[in-house]
Amino acid sequence: MALEARRHHLQKAWFERLTFYSHKAREQNDGFAGNAEDRNKLKKRMRSPLSPDFHFEKVESKNLGVTAIGRLFCHRSGVRTIRILSLALHLLKEGEPMALSTAADLVKAPLLYKGKVRELYDLGEHFLIVVTDRISAFDYVLDPAVPEKGNVLNKLSSFWFELTGSMMENHVVHTDVNQLGDLITDPELLKDRIMVTRKAERIDIECVVRGYITGGGWRQYETSGEVNGIKLPEGLRKNAKLEVPIFTPAAKNDVGHDEDIPMDRMKELVGDGLAMELQEKSLHLYEFARDYCDQRGIILADCKFEFGIVDGKVILIDEIFTPDASRFWAKENYALDIEIDSMDKEPVRTYLAGTDWDKNSKPDPLPQAVVEATTARYVDIYNRLTAQ
Q1: Does domain 111-198 match CATH 3.30.200.20?
Q2: What is the pTM of this model?
Q3: Which residues, in sequence order, are CB contacts of 104 under 8 Å at separation 6+?
């Protein structure tokens, strides 16, 4: 069953991928593209014993006007037309990792929440977090998913949770997919993507620490000379290192952007004592990671944390010090007054900024070169941070 589930999942993944990057099929006669010999050959191959909807075969053909090494055939009950989607040779490489857009068909547990990247499942006593390869920008989840992204995010969080465990208690129970037994239909696909956690009550504050004046902090400073109500020295330049890191919380919104708030407002929302505790823990964690990164040629410009409560005690939850929750700069790229190329999904942001996308609707699928560059960024930051 695990093999069948894996094959079916890969078929679905190929369907998504090839749809994004296919040349438009030139449908002829009964729906097949190519010459008569190809059409007859493909008719015999259109069925799959595993799924009535999807069938993938690796073929080589030049009949579609491109050198194709992959084709996917989609047949749905009641629809006679077979759509042939072809993929140009440069878009598909032998051994290229497949991206995971969802784990819903791989986990035998109720799906409680589907975020932009993470999926939360209910295991009864614990939660199961699965980190997919979905990627978002400007509040939109983009197509296609980025191979290896989820693996990197989950493994990096696991690495940091273990490294900071003596400083700050966290929600991790384990990250061993084999302990989940039959709950996972294909352990191999999810082995680096899962985290079983304690069920914490989330504190609805995003705890942001800034060591450098950049990004949203810079935009606030340009306007008012303050960041979240904190008065900063005059004359600071973009990307300048602050004398001391500052704590700039945001009230969490499950829909839309989180709202930057001053410390006084945070105290009103969660109470003076908890607000001060979260500030202290956040600054302590940032300073630890900043020094760790510095030894590896990386600047941790800013980062964010989420905390929860278990048995009346504050613990660290969600993710920490990943490219999605932190702004990493390579030291060799650091400069004032410029947009520094971050070690994260910067290729995606740069590409979108250079298009005519109106930001009011989902953008077109990302080019393959952008996807590959983004994968490389995530893998690179993982290797640099975890290398001993």
Answers
A1: yes
A2: 0.78
A3: 111, 119
